[in-house]
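Help wanted!
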Amino acid sequence: MGELARPFVKSPLTAQEIQATGSGVPDPGGLPGALRYDVPGSFNGSSGTYQLVVNPETNTVYHFNFVGGK
Amino acid sequence: MHFDIRRDTGMLARKSLFYDTGDFAFYVSPVADNFSSVLVNDINLEIDPNGVVISIWGLCPYMNWIDAVLGSPQAGAGEVRFVGDSPITRGVSIRLNRERWPTYVDRSNGWIYIAGTAKPTQVVAIMTGVIIELDEQRNLCGIWLKPAQLP
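Answered by r_m:
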């Protein structure tokens, strides 16, 4: 959901770049096996943070958003 | 930023809330057009360009829910509109909470409550199974969710 307004969710490259930062931490939301990344970036002219929750074993993305602001 | 409520807009019957146990996430059917969202934890209150909340979806792992006796919330139907401090940008979400709000579940009646810290003073049902609470300053302070089936 959210694909039309958030084209980055269909970009494996963006997700890979986020994961390549190595900044993932165990998901604070409590999803077993998942890592959460909060990586600074920009989208649609706004600065903010890419938020990605992914299971690195299965490469399943559970949460992928861009949040404006610092 | 705050939220405005407009009562009795007749939206209640048009949408249904579900929980996908594979995605560990809520979603609404039929799926609404999307523009941006307001985030609580990892749950998106999807908003249209005018800030009106048109859907709710997102990650909320059920294994982290806290069992509780919640009762059943009572709320009239209405529409909730987000009013930001700056224009809403397509695809750029707005986060409401830094600290995670706990998620409670009452398995006897199927209601889930994502609880902020403030005391609610206004309550409105924006669709079947989705109730929004606002505090005195019209900030969002709680979300009630009743999906078609609990995980």
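OP: Thanks! One thing I noticed: Chain A is about 15% helix and 45% strand.
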